[in-house]
Design brief:
The chain has eight helices and eight strands; from the N terminus they run αααββαααββαβββαβ. It is an alpha+beta fold and 220 residues long. A six-stranded antiparallel sheet has the order 3-8-4-5-6-7. It has a two-stranded antiparallel ribbon with strand order 1-2.
């Protein structure tokens, strides 16, 4: 089944919201889409008519299996294009999201599969998010927020939750990227900020807000 660009944007946003909250409500979706609740209601009617949604009375809604598959198809295209843009066209990782937002709406299964094969079937995009395979299967790795890591433990950056251009630009300033090894030296009780040591760089201090968005795993 083919969907309009607007429908795909809604499906993808519902998918991300339900990953966080389980059920989604009209107001939270309207806030995410930066539109009026009435516009969201109209779109929900369209998605319901295409049998993509599951409702729970007075509680909210979420994608059913068909809706989830449609969402993962869009997420797969988005993350493959981000990987291509960074690894092969050498875009900075903070510049690729809006471009991938446009490319993700190309509806050619053959193109997407050829792209996946050309890239070597990567499991993660440039920000550490898992890339669904053609069947919607996602690779999961054990990771923790930097705020949960014991002091003096060597860890490797595996993903970044907040992927705004401003956040990624800040991480680049601190020489933090996927695969960067770092150590938490100290936590300041005053504001929760962390002093960290990034490989061979001088120690630096990052805010608690930044640290919560950096995910890491043990050094292998």
């Amino acid at each position: 089944m083919n969907f309009t660009t607007s429908e795909e944007n809604y499906i993808k946003r519902i998918y991300h919201l339900q990953q966080e909250t389980g059920l989604v409500n009209t107001n939270s979706l309207a806030a995410e889409m930066q539109t009026r609740a009435a516009s969201v209601t109209d779109m929900l009617k369209k998605l319901k008519s295409k049998k993509l949604l599951q409702y729970e009375k007075y509680k909210g809604f979420k994608l059913n299996d068909a809706g989830k598959k449609a969402a993962l198809d869009v997420v797969r295209k988005h993350r493959l294009w981000e990987y291509f843009l960074v690894e092969h066209l050498k875009f900075d990782w903070d510049k690729v999201h809006p471009i991938a937002e446009e490319l993700e709406h190309i509806n050619s299964e053959e193109l997407v599969q050829r792209l996946d094969n050309f890239l070597g079937n990567p499991l993660f995009d440039p920000h550490g998010d898992p890339i669904p395979d053609k069947n919607g299967k996602i690779t999961v790795i054990k990771q923790q927020s930097l705020t949960e890591i014991p002091f003096k433990k060597n860890v490797t950056v595996s993903s970044v939750r907040n992927q705004t251009e401003q956040m990624l630009d800040m991480l680049r300033h601190y020489h933090i990227a996927l695969g960067t090894q770092l150590t938490v030296i100290k936590r300041f009780d005053f504001d929760g900020s962390l002093e960290i040591k990034v490989s061979k760089k001088n120690a630096c201090i990052i805010s608690e807000q930044v640290a919560k968005n950096i995910f890491v795993h043990d050094v292998h």
